[in-house]
Write a structure and sequence with these properties.
alpha/beta; two-stranded antiparallel ribbon
Amino acid sequence: MTYKRILLKLSGESLAAGAGSGIDSDRLAAYVAQIKEAAALGIQIGIVVGGGNIFRGVAGAAKGFDRVTGDQMGMLATVINSLAIRSALEDAGQPARVLTAIGMYPIGEPYSNRRAIEALEKGEVVIMSCGTGSPYFTTDTGSALRAIEICADVMLKGTRVDGVYTADPEKDPSATKFDRISYAEVMERGLKVMDLTATALCKENAMPIRVFDMDTPGNLLRLLKGESIGTLVY
């Protein structure tokens, strides 16, 4: 295998599939099937999932919530998605646990990198929720931080597009895809791979990012087996 331990970042919106909000059971099952396949190969898997299918803090602030409250509501949304993923994994026979960056026992155990690593080494999929636990940080930044803390070999950002493009391929048909791109070029071009804080954190800690299409069944396993899927940010 190319990697021994990974941090998989999943989009909350992707969990909703075409519905726009909520959790689509077919999409959830498809994700879980891919994650279980990877875990069966002995790969240690940490997961961070967004909450945009339920509530997005920035959007809430635009509707009148103060930013701190909006972000806290967004953190709770990530817990709902995390619990759904854990339950689906356990139903599929894959041990999993949810760790939360803010106190929420017994819904989830308090997060610490040692607790996460111990669970990973026992073969459990570890789902780390609530982002960083602080407002004004996205789940992308939470993913970057957790990837570094658990000493992951790579951060895999599963999206609905198949990599990083010169522009949004859903809006600009002339956009071209990068096979590889440096952190510096991502920031210079203002590409929307992740927010700047997350990109800078990965750059400072030499955490490679692989952006790929998670919605195509089998892509995660192909990537982990060494196929050049998506875009490598290094």
